């Protein structure tokens, strides 16, 4: 069965010709990294908590477009441009929004993120088998 490319209007559009919002391969869905932009493409103002909430909402919308929910997430990768400052507060939002049991997760500090210097980017792997 060929991979299915997921596109929803309920999350920021991918850059044309660069990547897909997500790809379903069998029982797995792999999302691209999402940043704290609204579906209209505007970066969320405020703090890293506000942008983390938006990122998770974006990813949830993409998962819905593939017939899944946050409960299907089995692995998450989080990228933070200021790990020492933002790790604790991103964890608070994570605990609030992600259902139990929590997925496996990696959190990495990076020098810079795309999209105008955002401070958080998250990608998911989800499974529905």
TrEMBL record:
Q: Name one GO cellular component term.
A: cytosol
Q: Which GO terms describe its molecular function?
A: deaminase activity
Matching Gene3D superfamilies, A to Z? RutC-like
Pfam families hit by this protein: Ribonuc_L-PSP (PF01042)
Family the entry assigns = Belongs to the RutC family.
Q: Which PANTHER family match?
A: 2-IMINOBUTANOATE/2-IMINOPROPANOATE DEAMINASE RIDA, MMF1
Q: What is this protein called?
A: Uncharacterized protein
- Could you tell me which species this protein originates from? Cryptococcus amylolentus CBS 6039
